[in-house]
Amino acid sequence: MLSKKIQAALAGSSAIRAMFVEGKELAAKVGVDNVFDYSLGNPATPAPDSIKQVAADLLEKEDPLVLHGYMSNSGYEDVREAVAQNLNSRFGTDFTCKNIIMTVGAAGGINIVFKALLDPGDEVIVFAPFFGEYRNYAANFDAAVVAVAPDYNTFQPDLDAFEAAFTEKTKAVLINTPNNPTGVIYSDETMNGIADILRRKEAEYKKDIYLISDEPYRELVYDGAKENFLTKYYHNTIVGYSFSKSLSLPGERIGYIAVPNEASDSQDLLAGLEVANRILGFVNAPSLIQKVVAGCINETTNLDFYDKNRKDLYEGLTRLGFTCIKPQGAFYLWVKSPEEDEAKFVSEAKKYNLVLVKGSAFGCSGYVRLAYCIPNEKINRSLEAFAKLAAKYRLLENSGGEHTGV
Ligand code: PLP
Asked: What pLDDT, on the 0 to 100 scale, is given for residue 406?
């Protein structure tokens, strides 16, 4: 009865969601307080208070026919203008409302970009490890994801491997920095290298190749790192943004796409995205929350909350002998599995009520991801369970007691 595509999607069902379900089952058995669920990137710090106030004001004062009505498939013009001006003031861009399309989160945004660009058989290069849903998004349009292995010391992309990944069928490159699942921010050097290769490949294949920047974690950066905006590196860059993490609004499904004027065929591209929003059935991004984020456009989430979790977890696990990549952004910790098959390590961890996600879900086996967007007291209590897990693998004995953070 089911279509072949849905059968395939069901068979390859998200490992993140599967662990989330396992975490819930575990909680039913041992009590929710005793489960340390690091599976899902669901913010645990609430949306700023201004969200509530702006929403209440809008409901009180705006014309309901406007507030809840249909609009252009690109979104409300005043909202798009607010987004454009916010980006201009922060990143020196020259956007107007015409460069912005409001979307149903980052997921809706990537899907409309893919719909607008991809023909069956086209290839999209991604950098491993990557958000596993990218595979499903490409499959929606009968396109394929081509994964490029990282430099395993730094988890920056390996640029030689990137250059080797291009074929006649390459239509776009999808990039995510700060990165889910590693927390790594791609350096200026990496970005310039990627841009150089893209320019060379455009010349070699005599066609446009777009860089799609998936930026739900743009503002979640630590240790004084600067927020980055990738259009400055490469002319054919399309930016996808989401308010899911930066304002703790994942269920509201709100984000945007920005297409700079310097991108090839930018007007056609914007027209294509607008129609894609309609014909994929999104029609337009949810109306009330569009107006709310426009009213809170200068707000960000509680970064101190995540920063404290980041430090406590990274330092705690490193001290126990785990090899961890020090996160520079987002809210994920990427940890080397102490045994080759990380699925076995994930099962072992579950015995101590620790719910982790295996790296193969992100196209990179031998590692696990911990989403540290959970209450801080849970992080600190979980370290006792991690200590038992570390003892089981004799981590400190094997490393001679050395700290193994990278
Ligand atoms: N891209 C990345 C890298 C993500 O981590 C996520 C969500 O976790 C998404 C896209 C989807 O975000 P949204 O909830 O805005 O659709």
From this structure: 52
Q: Is 125 helix (H, G, I), strand (E, B) or coil?
A: strand
pTM metric for this prediction = 0.95
Answer yes or no: is the C-beta of 349 below 6 A from any ligand 1 atom: no
User: Distance, CA 253 to ligand 1 centroid (Å)?
Assistant: 10
With the CA atoms of 385, 390, 391 and 393 taken in that order, what torsion angle do they form, in degrees rounded to the nearest 10? 130
Q: Could you tell me the fold of the domain covering 49-295? A: Aspartate Aminotransferase; domain 2 (3.40.640)
In the block, tokens 């693998």 appear at 393
176 lines ligand 1 (CB under 6 A): yes
**Which class for 299: exposed (0-12), middle (13-18), buried (19 or more C-beta within 10 A)?**
middle
- What residue ranges of the chain have pLDDT lower than 50? 401-404
Give the start-to-end residue ranges of the domains of the chain: 4-47+301-399, 49-295
Rounded Cα gap, residues 9 and 14, in angstroms: 9
Task: Find out whether the beta carbon of 255 lies less than 6 Å from any atom of ligand 1.
Answer: yes
- Give the SS3 label for residue 403: coil
CATH superfamily label, 4-47+301-399: Aspartate Aminotransferase, domain 1 (3.90.1150.10)
Q: Is the CB of 242 under 6 A from ligand 1?
A: yes
**Percentage of residues of the chain with pLDDT beyond 70:** 98
